[in-house]
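Dear colleague,

Thank you for sharing your sequence with our group. We've completed the structure prediction you requested, and as agreed, I am returning the results in plain text so they can be pasted directly into your records. Please verify that the sequence below matches your submission; if there's any discrepancy, let me know and we will rerun it promptly.
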Amino acid sequence: MDDLPDLVRPFAFLLGTWRGEGVGGYPTLEADFRYGEEITFACYGKPVIAFTSESWAVDDERPLARQSGFWRPTSATDLEVVLSVAAGLVEVFYGRLVSGPAGDHVELESDLIGHTATAKRVEADKRLYAVRGGKLMYAMEMAAVGQPMRPHLSAALDRVS
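Please find the predicted structure tokens below.
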């Protein structure tokens, strides 16, 4: 912790590799689905947190989504996030660290979403990340393919390193 850049320290509770299962769904899908996921938050010495996420179907282990990018703290509570999503999206989020009775959590809201010509249209994305009971908990809401903002993904992941 002592060798982390000052801007990263408030977000240090997220650092590490987390792995576990979640559930997803959306009105345009036939049914809800279970997925496995591994997320890594890493600081490489600069005041930036590298983020990677890889998910797979629990039933047959086929690959699902991949994301990578950077969380860029701009103060002790504020950050900018830039993510590249393998499905053909680039997302820019703004967010903040929120302190509450249950502990700290991070709330992110998309500001800009770029799409490749063949990507599904995502209009907005909101995410919440927290560590509770030693697990990384997150929830994602999305407005996409003509649907209003709705819950899409949620997971509870165990720290593996």
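Summary note from our side: The chain has no helices and ten strands.

Kind regards,
the structure core
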